Amino acid sequence: MKRLLEAELIYGRLLPVTEPHLIGRYNKALDAFGLKQTALTEFDIDMTGFSPQIADELGDRDYLDPNRVNRRFIILTPEQEFLPVVHTSFSNTAGLMHEFFHANARAISAVTIKDALYGEIEDSVAVVDHIEDLLSINEVTFKVHSAEDILGKAAELRQLSDRLIAQPDAWRDDDMLNRMVELAKFTGDIRQNTLVPDQLVFRHDAFWANHFGGVYVFHDGRNTTVICSSTAPGFRKARPWQVSYIDIDDFDTIYGFLARTKRLELPQASWIQQSGLYQLRMRMILLGLANDHDPNFDPERADTVWLQTWAHMNANLVSQDGSYPLLNEMYRLVSTTGSIRMPDVAARYRFLLVRAEPTHPDQWLVNRLLSQLQPYDFVSRFIFDKQGFYEAYERYSEKFREHVVKTLESTYLQDKSAFRRGLYGIKED
How far is it, in rounded angstroms, from Cα 205 to Cα 217? Predict the structure, then answer.
């Protein structure tokens, strides 16, 4: 894990918090959540205010994610909008936070000059024990409070101002006028400063949740599709008249659903030859096979020539897995004919040949699912499924961990946007 930290492949691009007044506001938020205040004099936070250092101090990585639902947040500065979310139970937490920041930008900027905002992203359930609990989440409401009670003071000043205007003799009430002056010293002119966030309700669209081994929920109008393990409580039982269920190991049905709903970009020479995605996947497959089966494997020697030689010397192993020969053959085929007949490809190999449709709003979620179904492609796994990547990383040998970090540093980290655009067609984040 130290190697990942040094390369900023985990907890990268976080915001340092060192100013005593910001730490004080953060502690008031922790206190309001019923948590122990931090004794740290500096720590880092992500978009939601989660701090890995405070998580270690409290001995609880879910201190802002109790029961892994109704996510808490602490906002010290508008700059948090541009940070990643490094610990979450729902894939759309970052999207919801972006919507909240964007819709309430003026209020957040005004409040955080003197105060911190905190609260939770509240939905309709308190605990997830059943797939039905996830399906019942259609929208979320941001419950917002402020550490120094600037929101309460602004609301009180608004009420007194309305009274001053509505009641002809209110200006004679010296106590009320003095209170208004006292409040205005703290809030500023509320006629000019928007202090109270006014858009707090947002839709909860397609998402992945880390409950029951991972659950994908897709929406198409009134139709909902759930992809997860068939052992998850409620599988094919929660709303069977409304929800379609697909087992995570049912590759044929998963592919059919994604293709039918136009969530996949099917193989075409135009993007395959330009992107280099097939070449990346072929290299990842050979690296993974060599690492799994060769006790003397040294990934630092594994250039293209070495991998080709290893593949020839271990032809039976490579053929038994089948991924590399299939991908190699399909690359030659698409270079010659321009396309591939997917019905001719065995279901378990089809995901090697496609990527998420870049124009579909669910492209990140689909790419996450595709990366989960291709465990050897650690580059795609890191980009789209960091939780899955970190779990796999823990099982790698030390030599392979070092190689993984070097590969990500020399490829993805050089220019993340250009890399995503080139390989996966993602034009915007």
Answer: 8
Cα 30 to chain centroid, rounded: 23
For the beta carbon of residue 182, count every other beta carbon within 10 angstroms.
Answer: 12
Cα dihedral 366/93/52/215 (nearest 10): -50
pLDDT in tens, 389-423: 999 999 998 999 999 999 999 999 999 999 999 99
Residue holding tokens 């989660």? 50
Kindly provide the b/e burial profile for residues 201-235, where b requires at least 16 CB atoms within 10 angstroms of the residue's own CB: ebebbbbbbebbebbbbbeeeeebbbbbeeebebb
Tell me the whole-structure pTM to 2 decimals: 0.87
Q: Is 373 left (phi over 0), alpha (psi -120 to 50) or beta?
A: alpha
Distance CA 47, CA 133 (A): 26
Please tell me the distance from the alpha carbon of residue 336 to that of residue 413, in angstroms, as a whole number: 33
Q: What is the pLDDT of residues 93-121, one digit of tens each?
A: 999 999 999 988 988 988 898 889 999 99
